[in-house]
Design a protein that fits this description.
single chain; mainly alpha; 5 helices
């Protein structure tokens, strides 16, 4: 079977794979940030939405990445993460809408303040 040439920037296929990986991660990150800001703008001003997204700590980012990785690696991982999200949603609802709203607003305010640092 003849070898096929893969198009790319470099004749080295590993270099092309690395470049593609970097490009995909960059586009994914940009898309994620734009989507988060768009969702937040339904309830907050554009400046506040930007502050919330920019105010995410390194720990919050690492936890999100780890949970997403667990969820996407296997069906049991997806079930565990999905069950955790469902459990958290039910827990918040059991506390009452007012209590959950107050706590959520406090967390958003903390994140906005964190963006200024």
């Amino acid at each position: 079977m003849p070898k096929r040439k893969l198009p790319g920037l470099s004749p080295n296929p590993m270099t092309n794979l690395i470049v593609t990986d970097i490009a995909l991660r960059g586009v994914g990150r940009l898309t994620r940030r734009l989507t988060e800001k768009a969702l937040l703008r339904t309830r907050y001003s554009a400046d506040d939405a930007k502050a919330v997204v920019d105010g995410r700590s390194m720990a919050q980012t690492l936890v999100s990445v780890a949970i997403a990785r667990v969820a996407t690696r296997s069906v049991p991982g997806a079930l565990i993460v999905g069950t955790g999200i469902l459990g958290k949603t039910l827990w918040d609802r059991s506390k009452g809408k007012r209590s959950a709203r107050i706590k959520g607003r406090k967390q958003m305010q903390d994140r906005m303040e964190n963006a200024d640092k």
